[in-house]
Amino acid sequence: xxxxGQFSNSIHGPKHPQSVGYTRAQKVVFYQSGxxxxxxAGGKLAPIEVEYETYGNxxxxxxxxxxxxxxxxxxxxxxxxxxxxxGPLRDYRRNKPGWWxxxxxxxxxxxxxxFFVICANVLGSCYGTTGPMCFNPTTGRPYGLxxxxxxxxxxxxxxxxLLDYLGLQILYAAIGxxxxxxxxxxxxxxxxxxxxxxxxxxxxxxxxxxxxxFNAVARHSIINDPNFKDGNYYDGPRPLAGLxxxxxxxxxxxxxxxxxxxxxxxxxxxxxxxxxxxxxxEFEVESYLKHQAENFVARYDANSYLYITRAVDYYDASxxxxxxxxxxxxRITARLLVVSFSSDWLFPPESCRxxxxxxxxxxxxxxxxxxxxxxxxxxxxxxTTTISRLIHSFLSx
Amino acid sequence: xxxxGQFSNSIHGPKHPQSVGYTRAQKVVFYQSGxxxxxxAGGKLAPIEVEYETYGNxxxxxxxxxxxxxxxxxxxxxxxxxxxxxGPLRDYRRNKPGWWxxxxxxxxxxxxxxFFVICANVLGSCYGTTGPMCFNPTTGRPYGLxxxxxxxxxxxxxxxxLLDYLGLQILYAAIGxxxxxxxxxxxxxxxxxxxxxxxxxxxxxxxxxxxxxFNAVARHSIINDPNFKDGNYYDGPRPLAGLxxxxxxxxxxxxxxxxxxxxxxxxxxxxxxxxxxxxxxEFEVESYLKHQAENFVARYDANSYLYITRAVDYYDASxxxxxxxxxxxxRITARLLVVSFSSDWLFPPESCRxxxxxxxxxxxxxxxxxxxxxxxxxxxxxxTTTISRLIHSFLSx
Lengths: 397, 397
Fold this sequence. Notes:
- The structure is a homodimer.
- Chain A is α/β, with parallel strands linked by helices.
- Chain A folds into two domains: 7-207 and 316-396, Rossmann fold, CATH 3.40.50; 211-308, Rna Polymerase Sigma Factor, Chain: A (Orthogonal Bundle), CATH 1.10.1740.
- Chain A contains twelve helices and 15 strands.
- In chain A, the strands form four sheets. A nine-stranded mixed sheet of chain A has the order 1-2-5-9-6-12-13-14-15, sandwiched between helices. A two-stranded antiparallel ribbon of chain A has the order 3-4.
- In chain A, α4 runs antiparallel to α5, α4 runs antiparallel to α8 and α5 packs across α7.
- The interface between A and B is large, with 59 and 59 residues.
């Protein structure tokens, strides 16, 4: 199958006892010939390589496809074990299953006996789809900051391109959490006739001022790392300290005061008495953040962090209704499920309810659930028991 | 008056119509001879210069003194206009009154017709009291990271030293917000016989895991600034980008989602359409944080930021009761007023109530008020109308 692109680097077939029908780590190249992709922010880009994975089998009616959209630092590898990982994610992928493996698989809530599940990495990422660390064919050098600005609208357009390529006119469901929820929403707004069900977790129609502020600090840290060098760092040391600061900060916003209190409290890190130093690691929570950041910078690209957080900043679903969210929501024909979590302070319940309210005002029937949870924004990845029931039920109607 | 120290750099007398009895920007040097100050974390320090200001007049009974303790980046200049500022704070102080001028002055809630008000800069600061940017007399060079670790307990001890020096056995009240509330609490715990009234605003007995985490990211940013050079940056470029990141982050935690939403929303900065760039300033909230940070780095020392945030990290009032807060609180004999603000998420109402509850369990009568406010942690500096009534009433009983 090669309509507009070509396969490369394919790893086929089941590699793990549970991985029935998994075809993973596939790549397709679009816009190799003909006009480039016109980006919503005004730029153009070609060619574009997209990394995606699929799980389960497409039925004969081609109407059992479920698209999952990943979050900020996620990738196409949703489920199963990748036993032969390649590239910069090698070590990261080798020792853990896909990022939503609890939800996707045979007899799991998003049941691969029943559904053909697709997840593709977003444009601008460093995880397989074309992004700023890729070579610009015109210059033969990595794009860096010459990479054009990409937006959630472009991600959605490229997903539609992929669905066309896979011969999928209809999505049984589009599902996403956080930024992925916004991308799924954008697809349902832009191509309402192609989405039958829309599930949005931990996301609102747009980020609030506080979220914009945190992203601004994260980018400030990256840009002011002396190794950043205006984004041209690929042949030298990378801006790891700045990216680490961004990740530590992000990590705090994904948790909640309550969950951090439970998990770490004020416990010291492997000592009974502090060292009384202004610069060392004293508390467990410091050690945890440092460790998380070290793991992260080994597998993520700072330029991608800049582009993707900025895309999240820009996103505002209400542009589909001339800044009237209800008018925008009236475009959607999909059945709707929105889930918020009580302690999420990046997309707090009020933010999700704003979207739900707009959908209701637009005359749409919405299933909305606010789940009491101490796990903050990350709850959509943690509260799997509760979400499993919700998603399983919603996909059954 | 010179008991153990000496005046230097005094600016006397009323400089402003309202500044009756103000004597500002005074310095006293302690531990010039004799044993140095033994610090709670184990170090020693001498000599120690303390900058303090007073407002109003001490009465004959010497029982009308009110001590105000400042917050993280505050200084001794609480009230009035300093028309002849010197040193690094020159530009900062010239164009604005003291940081709590709305609360302190003639006929104001902390009435300088009635009270003799004192505020002194904390140890480790860069605002007049000895800190890491001061010259170490042994080496003739700035202390930098050779400055010993200071704690809230040391701040309290040094305040007592200053009170002794001023001939004040009794404080009519000790008052502080945020970190200043913790310092006031520490004084009432360590020297209960000297504090008749204790007013704590926006502070708990200790910082939670989330607060520790934010401070860790702030310090990470400073320490990883290439100009930091292990704290020895005083004869070269300073770690401004790292300190700016710390301040931007801190600033977010002082506000609330609601107040940021009201103040900035998602408005673009002086443009109708974004520039679509991953590195520039697009939103008003970004511009605001950048501007605030630029002002801040011009007037604050990065090493002081490290030491003072760490001191806040370490502080836990329950050490006075062998980690039992009620047992600690039983030491206090002062009348108690604790004020929290509904949207404060650095010291949230639950954190303040933990302290109040411990005081109650210790058999103390506490006046506790949780003020509904959208202004977050900064509310203690913003909600002056409400606080004025509370403090005025509390100081009248």
